[in-house]
Amino acid sequence: MTNKKEYCSALLAELREYDESFDTVFIGGGTPTAIGEDLVSLCRALPKAAEFTVEANPGTLTHGLLRGLREAGVNRLSLGVQSFNDNELKALGRIHTAAEAEQAFIMAREAGFNNISIDLMLATPGQTAESLGRSLKKIAELSPEHVSAYSLIVEEGTPFYENTPPLPSEDEERELYWQAVEFLDNIGIKQYEISNFARPGRESRHNLKYWSGEPYVGIGAAAASYHGGYRYRNAADINIYLRGEGRGIDREAVSPSDRLHEKFWLGLRRTAGVEYNGEFPEAVDRLIKSGLLEMSGSMLRLTRKGLDLANVVFSEFV
Asked: CB under 8 Å to 195, separation ≥6 — which residues?
């Protein structure tokens, strides 16, 4: 079993290879809060950033851990709540209950976090408009700064894939999605990306970099980066990573043509859309005539119909 301190030391060693400053830091990719005080030590050693986010599973949080993270410079918390209905949490295999998720949020506020995001899962086994409504009502009561609402995707190789429980239909999934969009909008949490919602000024600065095509550095096993005009990743095998090997593999130069395509299939995820300068005129004209895209001033963006068929739109620019 990998030693947690050894892995954290390897992360810092990799970070020191980059001679530059970072204005956002995001620690995620699983349940980083599961390593407890080792995570606090890591955060203390990391460069302080204007936005410093840690993903957290509500079932792993304590008052002490939250205070430690806040004192270490973490100023944004992303809580993997998923649902405020116990039957849905059980179906998803989550280790926390709805009451524990609510308590985790309250503890985070008490620890001084004034920028908290809640993850909400849509179209889960057994989810209905009524049960989603209960989760949304609890979100309104807690009043987070940010919400990420993703529909469940059953990936090959997961327990759900081998034994998929009954799920809402595609039409029901769309109804649940728009129920969430409209509810959040009514309480001042505005949609700024297909699956992300925030109070004004509380959009995730880190994730906006992905959708805007800005460079980013990924640290750790299996981490991906876009830096210096290249995309690359680290080996997924932790033992290889700890030996200092397997960094920057699958290195691929990003050409001007690649960047142009990415401008559209990444940037159109944002509700503001992308600055349009006449690129891909035939595809854009076709998508506008199909009611999937629209112009708003100089910005090209998805329509409501386009949000429902976003993958169809993106496929035109891949």
From this structure: 148, 149, 150, 151
